[in-house]
Amino acid sequence: MKINVLAFGVAKDIFGSGEVSLEMSNDATIYNLKYLLEQQYPRLKQLSSYMVAVNNEYALPGDTIHERDEVAIIPPVSGG
Amino acid sequence: MKINVLAFGVAKDIFGSGEVSLEMSNDATIYNLKYLLEQQYPRLKQLSSYMVAVNNEYALPGDTIHERDEVAIIPPVSGG
Amino acid sequence: MSAESGGIDVFIGTVRNQTKGKKVLKLDFEAYEPMAISEMYKIAARAFERWPVQKILIHHRTGLLQVGEVPVIIAVSAAHRDAAFEACRYIIDTLKQTVPIWKKESFEDGDVWVAAHP
Amino acid sequence: MSAESGGIDVFIGTVRNQTKGKKVLKLDFEAYEPMAISEMYKIAARAFERWPVQKILIHHRTGLLQVGEVPVIIAVSAAHRDAAFEACRYIIDTLKQTVPIWKKESFEDGDVWVAAHP
Asked: Quick check: keyword Repressor in the entry (chains C, D) (predicted)?
């Protein structure tokens, strides 16, 4: 399946874009997604940490991603 | 010496006036003043507590009152 | 507010429409004004000693207030919010204990000076 | 504010002119807007569960802000001030931890996404 990944803050700078596309297997997890992204964008590993959100909720590493899910990379937040 | 005593809040109701005059000896203390006032206005003793201020500062029972001091009865405060 | 300020905590007291379930019609505030001002300065001075705060505002109205009106406003600015929150809380708590201001609540069956009697 | 309200605590965040001694020229805030709004609702819901508060306002700006401008405002009303202070403090602390909003600080020598790197 094709997964579109939104990027914000420093992640947008690292991807060079606010959205990137990945080809993943149908049972892919957040863990798999992070691995793939870090292969393609090694600077992600230099962040102090980052989370992944699926459909506007923070996701856990074992959570599965489904086609048409809204997936987003959430670098350390700094609002307020 | 003659001491003028300002009254606020419920103390003003008890004295029936915002200011009363007392004749006291020259070495009178806050303790003496409270005793005298409670003789003249027994309802003062029904208050949950009250303080005396001298020249805009809270006074202690042993503090001495001097002529021309600004003396005030401070019932329990309830601002805010 | 100054350019070094990172946050302001503001406490706004409002006249509530009831006290222990009894309907409050209005409030009347009386102050021993020179001493009230002097006590407010003391509270601000103590807050400046205890927390790294930048500016402090303490405002208190007197006279007749209706439900929903604002008798008291405290505002504290600081470089960091911890200090602003803690100092603001300290100031309103201490004001209620030491500043010579008295509140008379008017109910349908009469008036009561708050906290005057046990 | 409602007639049952006895106090409102308001936190106003401001853009400071420096970070760790370095002069800040301006800030740029970016939000993942639908998730940011959903996280703010969650924080408010948790505050309503934990404290007897009446109304909650959470406001956050995005885009370019100058020194002294106000990125964030939190306001909480309650019958009693303890709840207003505690809930307001909880909301700003939690917002800074969970709401997907990012701040880029511009210094004279370049821009930095705050907290992005160790």
From this structure: no
